[in-house]
Design goal:
By secondary structure, this protein is of the alpha/beta class. Helices cover about 25% and strands about 25% of the residues. Strand 6, helix 4 and strand 7 form a beta-alpha-beta unit.
């Protein structure tokens, strides 16, 4: 819509009765929530075709509770697997107090909410899913990998015969971009990031980026010509639209583009006026490999990715950063608007500091 409505015009809080804990169940109180773009993108509105149903996802219908990634603390338990004080992480309706079955049979994927390791803070846990996405794309996706496969590829890397790759990452200051930049840097790449302002562009250099473009203050296409005159090997795109077009013009022959998100299109879903990819004709001329990634299709790979990320973090190979807001449930809509304004660095996490005996839902 034009103008785009504020979150306070879309979301509202409502009181709900506390759920009843039966045998085999536990009740948990939400401690924090990750404020993510899907909060608006998956709303079921006229013309708002995100393709969610085709992926088996449930669209958020007007009047329903907003689904979010959250961390909650067990406050009552009648099942063996969970005790009071345990923290769990899951994707669930944003309700202050909610009940789960200990066997996971009430969950869409049939799995009980996993526990949060005691050594991992609530905020860092909510950073993990963005790290998981970045890890899987950079290490397992054919369009996101820079490592050469096979015995000959291993020998070339061992002998230092592999040419240094140039990687472009959009939304470099976002939760996924922060991790992707470091992972590619650890692989010996020259990494160029794109973010909104010069202040954020300078800061991302602390997280693996050799160079960064501030698209609100300089022309992205011109700067790419200056920073990567020989072209881009791998383009890790989180934004789409104009930034996808600009990056496509600077790809090398045989280059690879992997799209992980399309942040620029979020408020275009409701109108159907998608900007799209206008430079797709370069795919044939430059023999580009193009692919997409969606985490929900790779749930079986999450445990190994989590272990790898934790090990890298402990070894100092991966730094974590986020924008933490400590506030009340009433601050949720402010955080949604803040996310879309670009006034964040890393993932935006809202930590709730208010208590209550009545369940609150957004």
């Amino acid at each position: 819509p034009d103008p785009v409505p504020k979150a306070s015009e879309i979301f509202a809080m409502q009181d709900q009765d506390l759920p009843i804990v039966k045998d085999g169940m536990f009740m948990a109180r939400v401690l924090a929530v990750a404020v993510a773009p899907h909060t608006r993108a998956f709303l079921e509105l006229p013309g708002n075709n995100t393709g969610a149903e085709a992926l088996g996802l449930h669209r958020t219908i007007i009047g329903e509770t907003v689904p979010c990634e959250l961390v909650a603390e067990v406050v009552e338990s009648k099942c063996k697997g969970y005790k009071v004080g345990d923290r769990v992480v899951c994707f669930a309706p944003l309700v202050q107090y909610q009940v789960f079955r200990g066997d996971g049979k009430d969950r869409p994927d049939g799995r009980a909410p996993p526990k949060v390791f005691a050594s991992v803070s609530t905020e860092d846990q909510l950073n993990l899913s963005t790290g998981i996405t970045a890890y899987m794309v950079t290490n397992q996706h054919p369009c996101g990998m820079v490592d050469e496969l096979g015995c000959w590829g291993f020998v070339k890397q061992l002998l230092g015969l592999t040419p240094r790759k140039t990687v472009l990452v959009t939304s470099a200051a976002g939760g996924i971009g922060i991790v992707a930049g470091q992972l590619y840097k650890n692989k010996g790449c020259r990494v160029i990031g794109v973010t909104s302002t010069r202040a954020k562009a300078d800061r991302v250099k602390e997280f693996g980026y050799d160079e960064a473009i501030a698209y609100k203050e300089e022309d992205m296409g011109t700067r790419l010509g200056e920073l990567a005159p020989e072209g881009i090997d791998v383009f890790f795109d989180n934004v789409g639209a104009e930034q996808l077009d600009a990056g496509s013009k600077h790809m090398k022959v045989g280059g690879k583009i992997v799209q992980v998100g399309c942040a620029a299109e979020i408020d275009n879903y409701a109108t159907g006026k998608i900007s799209g990819w206008k430079e797709y004709h370069r795919m044939a001329a430059k023999e580009l490999q193009v692919g997409g990634f969606f985490l929900a299709n790779h749930l079986h790979r999450i445990p190994m990715a989590v272990i790898s990320l934790i090990i890298m973090n402990k070894r100092g190979k991966l730094k974590s950063v986020n924008t933490v807001v400590k506030g009340s449930w009433a601050d949720f809509t402010k955080c949604v608007d803040r996310l879309h304004s670009g006034d964040t660095f890393g993932r935006l996490v809202l930590v709730f500091d208010d208590q209550g005996s009545t369940a609150i839902g957004a």
